[in-house]
Amino acid sequence: MQSFSELEKWVDEVKNLCQPDSIHFVTGDKAEEKSFFEELVRDQKAIQLNPLLRPNSYAFFSDPSDVARVEKRTFIASNKKEDAGPTNNWIEPQKLKKIMTKLYKGSMKGRTMYVIPYVMGPIDAPISKIGIEITDSLYVVVNMIKMTRTGTQVLDKIKNETPFYIGLHSIGAPKKNGVIDSMWPCAKMQKKYIAHFPDEKLIWSYGSGYGGNALLGKKCLALRIASKIAYDEGWMAEHMLILKLTNPDLESKYILGAFPSACGKTNLSMLIPTIPGWKVETIGDDIAWIWMKEDGKLYAINPEKGFFGVAKGTSYRSNPNAMKAIEKNTIFTNVALTDDLDVWWEGIDKEKPKHLKDWQLHNYDISCTYPAAHPNSRFTVEATESPVLANEWEDPNGVLISAILIGGRRPSTIPLVHEALSWKHGVFMGSMMGSEITAATISDQIGMVRRDPFAMLPFIGYHVGDYLQHWIDMGQKANQEFLPKIYYVNWFRKNDDGQFMWPGFGENSRVLKWIFERVDQKASAKLTPIGYVPDRDSIDLSNLDVSEKDIEALTEIDVNLWFDEVKSIRAYYKTIGNKCPIDLVNELNQLEFRLKNYVQ
Ligand SMILES: Nc1nc2c(ncn2[C@@H]2O[C@H](COP(=O)(O)OP(=O)(O)OP(=O)(O)O)[C@@H](O)[C@H]2O)c(=O)[nH]1
Ligand SMILES: O=C([O-])CC(=O)C(=O)O
Ligand SMILES: [Mn+2]
């Protein structure tokens, strides 16, 4: 959409369709946010945490059917089926609109309809995008306020004819007269639809109130729709963290990391190095928008303004900076509650109290054997609460990218780190990336390995083959001298007892240091069929508590396992069909050739 009058017309249409009791335009000011939380507490939708322990913080508890993104109910309704590709659910757009229009009819009865003007990206960055979300969920509103730049200044931009993207969201639970609302009203699973119309750049979401299903700026706009816009316009929207790494000589580089949901982006983006003199600061923890400037170099911005992080497993030991960020002004979803109204989850430092309320607010004591917090429990907090936010985090010029990490949960085969031989080989590595399915998505296959190219499988708004070709093309267009190097990292390799061999978290700084020094051509490496791996002297393992045997295993290349991998990638490329880039098939053939000729 292009103009304020179009916006007014759309708001009016939605009002007539969804029939809310009232309409509220979100202004984004502090007094308004405060009154929203007061209303949420008064209506028993949220619990205010103990202000002495966790000031200005609130806990929400979702319906058990509404705890994560639902990929089965997520649709890319492109005009042509072919454009959605083999990795997306597709429905003919007119048919889907018909189904959803029926559902939206009267869906906001008894509720307020909120209009949220927001911008993804610093307000003046060249690739920032304006969005308008209409929602009937106040939970969504308070989360959007923390996660995006929201408010009246965005409407001013629209009045000045800046184009914008619209998204309609309803929890799909009209209030019935005389019936008391539940704490988290939403629709049944079969009625949830997270729909994208990429040809119109339109988002319709119905029936779920959770995270990436409902905060439409995040996965729906900043990834699925933006990935399609980026493909058409020649830039990239990626599921990546952005960090700033500074060495003891105070030289800095910016590094991106694509890991699937619940695979360590937030943790890496704010880690505290265990090696002296090094520093990591955060630019973003989930999404990066990447573009090429006239100098042929690649730059990135974080389109978000906050963190929607996994709570479970977060502790002062694993991620002290996240723990500090969430000491106040935080929204928690599906965590457990202590008797004195603070939060608790599995993996937090504090010992398990004798009594808790679990994430469904049931009494929970030591006799309970199931987890008290949901594995996908989350915190929402503004980036500015982080003690390690980089100064340039909202520089509209973006930051220059030196290296791109990709990775996931692979219990075997993939070593701790290896460097791509070239950009194309790096794209090959990204294309074959696999990971165990985690609790960030509702699935009956949690724990199984699936291919997840550049951690974007659930977020590519078009054909995966075109997406991979776009990656190759971006590298070809860039100034070759300044192309970021690509690294495959794996913090999750396991030993025969099923234990992680690499301590991870702060110790990952050792790998970051090697990468930093590789970019500067200071660290050495061993050339192997799969790429460059660190040799023993080039990676800093001083004062590290890992056995010789495990270090050996972490960097070992098991040729037989790699032959299995090649076979499996070949089968996977078949599923991409004739749009699978020929360059990637060549890379696969070359990998097989190098493996056959490898003498260890
Ligand atoms: N073993 C191990 N676990 C890790 C490491 N880094 C993160 N984790 C665990 O992985 C889980 C998810 O980590 P996050 O950093 O929240 O993952 P994310 O990629 O930001 O997840 P999304 O927000 O879903 O995109 C948490 O339970 C962490 O404790 C690591 O280096 N080693
Ligand atoms: O989108 C969500 O609900 C949370 C998230 O960051 C992810 O799953 O990658
Ligand atoms: Mn994510």
From TrEMBL:
<feature type="binding site">
    <location>
        <begin position="262"/>
        <end position="267"/>
    </location>
    <ligand>
        <name>GTP</name>
    </ligand>
</feature>
<dbReference type="GO" id="GO:0046327">
    <property type="term" value="P:glycerol biosynthetic process from pyruvate"/>
</dbReference>
<keyword id="KW-0456">Lyase</keyword>
<dbReference type="InterPro" id="IPR035077">
    <property type="entry name" value="PEP_carboxykinase_GTP_C"/>
</dbReference>
<feature type="binding site">
    <location>
        <position position="69"/>
    </location>
    <ligand>
        <name>substrate</name>
    </ligand>
</feature>
<keyword id="KW-0547">Nucleotide-binding</keyword>
<feature type="domain" description="Phosphoenolpyruvate carboxykinase GTP-utilising N-terminal">
    <location>
        <begin position="9"/>
        <end position="230"/>
    </location>
</feature>
<dbReference type="InterPro" id="IPR018091">
    <property type="entry name" value="PEP_carboxykin_GTP_CS"/>
</dbReference>
<dbReference type="GO" id="GO:0005525">
    <property type="term" value="F:GTP binding"/>
</dbReference>
<keyword id="KW-0479">Metal-binding</keyword>
<feature type="binding site">
    <location>
        <position position="219"/>
    </location>
    <ligand>
        <name>Mn(2+)</name>
    </ligand>
</feature>
<dbReference type="Pfam" id="PF00821">
    <property type="entry name" value="PEPCK_GTP"/>
</dbReference>
<keyword id="KW-0312">Gluconeogenesis</keyword>
<feature type="binding site">
    <location>
        <position position="239"/>
    </location>
    <ligand>
        <name>Mn(2+)</name>
    </ligand>
</feature>
<dbReference type="GO" id="GO:0071333">
    <property type="term" value="P:cellular response to glucose stimulus"/>
</dbReference>
<feature type="domain" description="Phosphoenolpyruvate carboxykinase C-terminal P-loop">
    <location>
        <begin position="235"/>
        <end position="592"/>
    </location>
</feature>
<dbReference type="InterPro" id="IPR008210">
    <property type="entry name" value="PEP_carboxykinase_N"/>
</dbReference>
<comment type="subunit">
    <text>Monomer.</text>
</comment>
<dbReference type="GO" id="GO:0005829">
    <property type="term" value="C:cytosol"/>
</dbReference>
<protein>
    <recommendedName>
        <fullName>Phosphoenolpyruvate carboxykinase [GTP]</fullName>
        <ecNumber>4.1.1.32</ecNumber>
    </recommendedName>
</protein>
<dbReference type="InterPro" id="IPR008209">
    <property type="entry name" value="PEP_carboxykinase_GTP"/>
</dbReference>
<dbReference type="Pfam" id="PF17297">
    <property type="entry name" value="PEPCK_N"/>
</dbReference>
<feature type="binding site">
    <location>
        <position position="261"/>
    </location>
    <ligand>
        <name>substrate</name>
    </ligand>
</feature>
<feature type="binding site">
    <location>
        <begin position="376"/>
        <end position="378"/>
    </location>
    <ligand>
        <name>substrate</name>
    </ligand>
</feature>
<dbReference type="InterPro" id="IPR035078">
    <property type="entry name" value="PEP_carboxykinase_GTP_N"/>
</dbReference>
<feature type="binding site">
    <location>
        <position position="378"/>
    </location>
    <ligand>
        <name>GTP</name>
    </ligand>
</feature>
<feature type="binding site">
    <location>
        <begin position="210"/>
        <end position="212"/>
    </location>
    <ligand>
        <name>substrate</name>
    </ligand>
</feature>
<dbReference type="GO" id="GO:0019543">
    <property type="term" value="P:propionate catabolic process"/>
</dbReference>
<keyword id="KW-0464">Manganese</keyword>
<keyword id="KW-0210">Decarboxylase</keyword>
<dbReference type="GO" id="GO:0006094">
    <property type="term" value="P:gluconeogenesis"/>
</dbReference>
<feature type="active site">
    <location>
        <position position="263"/>
    </location>
</feature>
<dbReference type="GO" id="GO:0033993">
    <property type="term" value="P:response to lipid"/>
</dbReference>
<feature type="binding site">
    <location>
        <begin position="505"/>
        <end position="508"/>
    </location>
    <ligand>
        <name>GTP</name>
    </ligand>
</feature>
<dbReference type="GO" id="GO:0006107">
    <property type="term" value="P:oxaloacetate metabolic process"/>
</dbReference>
<dbReference type="GO" id="GO:0042594">
    <property type="term" value="P:response to starvation"/>
</dbReference>
<dbReference type="GO" id="GO:0004613">
    <property type="term" value="F:phosphoenolpyruvate carboxykinase (GTP) activity"/>
</dbReference>
<keyword id="KW-0963">Cytoplasm</keyword>
<dbReference type="InterPro" id="IPR013035">
    <property type="entry name" value="PEP_carboxykinase_C"/>
</dbReference>
<feature type="binding site">
    <location>
        <position position="409"/>
    </location>
    <ligand>
        <name>GTP</name>
    </ligand>
</feature>
<comment type="function">
    <text>Catalyzes the conversion of oxaloacetate (OAA) to phosphoenolpyruvate (PEP), the rate-limiting step in the metabolic pathway that produces glucose from lactate and other precursors derived from the citric acid cycle.</text>
</comment>
<dbReference type="GO" id="GO:0030145">
    <property type="term" value="F:manganese ion binding"/>
</dbReference>
